[in-house]
From TrEMBL, chains A, B, C, D:
One Pfam match: ThuA
Organism: Skermanella aerolata
Gene3D superfamilies: 3.40.50.880
Residues forming coiled coils: none
Source species, domain of life: Bacteria
Protein name: Trehalose utilization protein ThuA
Domain ThuA-like, residue spans: 7-222
Lineage: Bacteria, Pseudomonadati, Pseudomonadota, Alphaproteobacteria, Rhodospirillales
């Protein structure tokens, strides 16, 4: 219900785009720009940040001006500074939305917020993924068809070691015989989290209109509400019930 | 994310207001008008309907133009025509939001959608109710304090025989020793349902600013999304996977 | 934690077995006996009941001695007497477990307890179903592999118009491109409900050891606890808080 | 469904009992023995471990022989060795049950598994706590009354910064006007977690028969199932669907 544009920061590991020709061909400006462009077109205020920047581009100032943070990481999760992860986690608890994408299932921030290993099965074989909308009435499913296909995509399969999602929006079918909970909603503190599966770096997933629609919907859904900080600690004395 | 104003229909049994002076004094224009007025002020397009009208005021035309339906009933649940309940249920399944209030826990439409008795404990003793916000990050809690009090209110106490809510937004504390799940979210078909407890007819509950804020938030939350109807039945032949 | 054997009643429409040679070949003693035999072997006390019996075999006495009721129906849902459905529903609310199987997604009792249409997609093409265990730590998944296959099976596909399950234990993959929430847990009143998808009448599904294990586990999970009836209605006066 | 007795380890910080006369008077053998004694009487195989022991008493060997771990900590959470917390977390993921009690809401292990601050309101004023059973059909509620009182108890109040529980079994009412989600179920990996609120060290909470019944029920519920370890990582090649 906010009037001002939602402020999005797209964070990217930004490794494969600089080191692999195949990835550069698909995402010449980086995955972060591929994600940012359609969000800008949808009217959001969008900036990007990458792991190679000082403080990974996620300074206190940047986070203070971020309503929703997209996260794409893969090979360098272990090199993300714990102090930055602390900072992001504190912001999620205070209400910032977080959208971990694809291989970010193994990001420090997602693992910490879930409390599980977030491990899964995987296979890179250029196969078909068919994403079924399970919760059609959910805001993140708005305007989506009952299913849409991505081909080629990397397979992620169950078991996916996550807490049972508060809301399960999408389930993927894979050509090779697997299923996967591909769109999962959580709340941690005041912050809303939406994990979305698609996005292998060598495939043009983030150019897909349906994928872009899901991510835009998720930004709306995850944007913080007008909420005062939670108050904890010593409470009023017993006799003060008015 | 709809641009046009959300269209709300406030439905009321409209019995006590016409037969009990104490209720007339609190709600001179009926509970439906007390509910409609702040919703109009909040920018919604609001009409009212009452049980004594033909088809209870809920014709096909009225329902076709209703995004969210508020429901207040108490003594005459059994006199609500099953054909009208069928019609409302079909509309909820197709995406219309439904907000049953207070004694509507025993309405035919709520009971059908829940599949349980929806029975509970109760006491009219003018006591204090303290409503705690449990899910502060939820859209229905936006702008609400950590708790607010209503005094006097009727007590509703656990056990409340409902399915475990998809999201539990509010829990009430009562002076006499009871607790109650006072704000409960459900989805049935494409429709979103929010049961909200407060509202005894002899008390000025619906004039309370916090109560009005909750209901306005719930209307936003329950408004239907842009979703094509669900497709069921015989599916494509096996060989047609493209 | 009960010491005495759990008392199971297996209920069957019992139509196809008497009218279709292909079904008779697969289930010569009826689907009810195919379900009852492995449950007896597992140590449960099992009786059967069929739709063609007086009161559909579900008299007050039979239900009073039933801890968990299995339900298999398909073509004659509409001929099940509403008075018997009332009786079963009351027993579920009081704690009896209910396990609707396969085409019983359209049974009156399941529809009433869910509050939705329970509609879905379907296709009879003898295709492969691969059932993935999503909730490996759940009692109903005990001893099951990470997945098991049934071939041939009927396809059931999303959208499956049910309330989001309290616990989602199994998700099916189908050869033709569909997924389905195949093992869904609910509680209604004191009763526990487990919907389990497999079981087309022309296929030998209920002779499968994994299917039998799931059903036996579900009986354990759904068996009623030692619980006093819920007390509703007028509560103690305000001043009686001791 | 295990035949052998469930093996319980009761872990205690064991500080207050040795340093405060008032606590020693209530729990002369330590909170761990107060918890262990009724569990032994209920037929479980029980050992204890305390923070002051080498490796806090939680060696690999001890954990390997533990089906369910009870945890009571308060002042010395920060002194619990991270390596031991790693070990416990790995065991929970592999299926060990965990029952954090009272002030263990701030234990490292619970915070890690939740991904939130687990902060709350509190007040030590010897007031009445009335614990309402919300989920009467749940195994942890078996044999419990609709509510039971503890007086005196410490108040814990909302907001309680936890993920929405998978199952909410108990909600507490406090004399001073607060409510609290007192019995919360989670699954992380294959392990089941039940947080239970009561238990301030200066009050005789763990001598209460209802509290003891809840904890014994929770041990049954949290005990690991017969489950093979989850398999992750590289999956079968695409062409191997048999």
């Amino acid at each position: 219900m906010s009037v001002n544009p939602i402020r999005v920061t797209v964070w990217n590991e930004n490794l494969h785009e600089r080191t692999q020709a195949v990835v550069q061909a698909v995402y010449p400006d980086g995955i972060h720009e591929a994600l940012a462009t359609p969000l800008r077109a949808a009217g959001f205020t969008v900036r990007t940040a990458t792991q190679d920047q000082p403080e990974h581009g996620l300074t206190e100032d940047v986070l203070a001006e971020t309503d929703v943070l997209l996260w794409w990481g893969h090979r360098l999760h272990h090199q993300v500074d714990d102090a930055v992860v602390d900072r992001v986690q504190a912001r999620v608890w205070a209400g910032m939305g977080l959208i971990p994408l694809h291989s970010s299932h193994f990001s420090k921030i997602f693992n910490r917020l879930m409390g599980t290993t977030c491990n899964l099965k995987h296979r890179v074989a250029g196969e078909r993924e068919r994403i079924w909308t399970i919760a059609r009435g959910h805001p993140i499913a708005e305007g989506l068809p009952e299913y849409f296909d991505l081909k080629p995509e990397e397979m992620y399969g169950e078991p996916f070691d996550i807490p049972a999602p508060d809301e399960l929006v999408f389930v993927s079918w894979f050509q090779g015989g697997e299923v996967f909970r591909s769109g999962c909603c959580y709340t941690r503190g005041l912050g809303r989290i939406f994990y979305f599966r698609p996005g292998h770096e060598t495939y043009p997933t983030y150019h897909d209109a349906n994928v872009q629609r899901v991510i835009a919907n998720a930004v709306h859904w995850a944007a913080p509400r007008d909420v005062a900080p939670l108050r904890f600690g010593r409470s009023a004395p017993l006799e003060t019930l008015d």
